[in-house]
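worker-3 :: picked Cyclin dependent kinase inhibitor 2C
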Amino acid sequence: MKGGIPSGTWMHTATEELFLGAVAAKSQIPTVNRVMKLGNPEIARRLLISGANPNLKDSTGFAVIHDVAREGFLDTLQTLLEFKADVNIEDNEGNLPLHLAAREGHVRVVELLLERAECKVGHQNKRGATAYDLAKLYKRSAVVKLLEDSSFFPAAMN
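worker-3 :: tokens ->
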């Protein structure tokens, strides 16, 4: 610590909560999204408790759940889902978080998204690709196998 408030003290915690509350209250999409995209589930939780909307999109059409799925931040994804983040929210290219997780090969993230009954496994993005198609294209064999071995596979083919 150089001239700041020591981490872990009540003053640090109070200052952090005040800052996060102010950020969430202002609903500054770029700021809230950037902070939550860091993949820290505790910071995401505090922002969401303070009223941040988990479904706000940035200029690319990405909501936080898109970045979290793409980066494989499982803990932060769980937090977002607790606060009703939309698993079927589309980015500007028509990709769902499932598309991004499948493309990057994040098996655990794909599993968690598939556990949501409302997850549209067979959804096609603007190029006509499903999450299964992207997993095959990018040679994400573990995700391909997960989809083929699960009850979700027929839905992915529709």
